[in-house]
Amino acid sequence: MDTWIGLMSGTSMDGIDAVLVSFQGKAIHTYETHSSPYPEDLRKRLALASQNQASPDEVGELDTLVGTLFADVAENLIRKSSADRSSIRAIGSHGQTLRHQPSGPGRFSLQIGNPSIIAERTGVTTIGDFRSRDMAAGGQGAPLVPAFHQHFFGSETEDRCILNLGGIANITWIPSDPNTLVTGFDTGPANALMDAWCQDQTGRSYDEDGQWANEGIIDQSLLSDMLSDAYFERPPPKSTGKEKFNLEWIKTLLKRHETVRPEDVQRTLMQLSVITATRQMPQSPAMVVYVCGGGARNQPFMRELSQALSPIRVLSTAELGLDPQWVEPTAFAWLARQTMNRKPGNLAEVTGAKGPRILGAIYPA
Questions:
Q1: Which pTM value belongs to this model?
Q2: Helix H or strand E encompassing 77
Q3: Cys bridge to 126: 7, 118, 311, 337, which one at CB 3.0-4.6 A?
Q4: Whose CA is closest to 211, among 141, 267, 281, 288?
Q5: What does the pLDDT look like over 247-282, one tens digit per residue?
């Protein structure tokens, strides 16, 4: 049976997740997983580059460095699994997003992590640049995981909402009625703003298990100001990133709320993520919400989410057979499979593209 590797690094820019999997019908078999954090100096350089603070030379160098790291992670995964390399059909590499600009005359989405290096170093055919074709067809280029969610997480007996809590939050609404379209879009920030504020105020790259936020209280005036951002009222299809929701966004708002304590800002940012995700979900009392992504490990965040959605059940995607950390890399392994089998990987009703498209560029072994 063919196996596939998925490589993923999200907007949080904390590191690279990798999986070795196979697919049979709606079943996923996970053979091995591997995670590797970015070196701190590289993470800082990536953060600056994502804020337009990098020259073309620096972006080119980062493309090579990140591609080399992705190749190393894939190699480590293969060694850990003792897999027969010849059975690995392809690697699907999302790359590292530096900028995502889905609107305007020069729309683009830029992921670095040179796939040629991955193919050359591993000897395995690699697929990258998944977002460009959808954007060329008029789509947002994001989110791309809803097609995977629909295929593997769809149910004939319950409406399901898959909530991915990465740097940015996105939802996939999968109704049990097969005649109702799947919908999906970015709801706004999940961890991105909390991570940025924590780094700025404490020097820590993230608020482990939401402990710092737990020390604060929600500032209702600041929260109302945050919620007034037009993005939250914009109808889908829509997608966003740290180009929009970043430290500068927070500091601009705080000019009108200068007396709010840092820990209260953090607590308010958590509530912002909870409210914007839950308010934009379709209203279905029979639905179940399944959470994936790094935010699923933030227990205070999960408690607030459950309270906001009560009596709707909030569960982990582990209940569907896939650990929250590995949903996205598995999705890109599946997208690689779609590409190699000449099948579409997007959902046009989600991204706004003119129709289904085969995604990605193939870099042969």
A1: 0.96
A2: helix 56-81
A3: 118
A4: 267
A5: 999 999 999 999 999 999 999 999 999 999 999 999
**Do 38 and 76 belong together in one domain?**
yes
Q: What is the CATH number of the domain that holds 26?
A: 3.30.420.40
Alpha carbon distance 174, 317 (integer Å): 14
Instruction: Tell me the backbone φ, ψ of residue 306, rounded to 5 degrees.
Output: -65, -40
Domain residues for the domain of 290 are: 146-320
How far is CA 273 from its chain centroid? 14
Give the chain's count of helices (H) and strands (E): 13, 12
Instruction: Please work out, in degrees rounded to the nearest 5, the angle formed at the alpha carbon of residue 46 by the alpha carbons of 166 and 346.
Output: 45
Whether 240 and 337 map to the same domain: the answer is no
- Neighbour-count burial for 102-140, b at 16+ CB within 10 Å, e otherwise: beeeeeebbbbbbbebbbebbebbbbbbbbbbbbebebb
Quote the number of domains for the chain: 2
Three-class SS state of 144: coil
**Tokens 């305007």 appear where?**
104
Whether 163 and 302 map to the same domain: the answer is yes
Name the nearest CA neighbour of 8 among 349, 332, 355, 335: 332
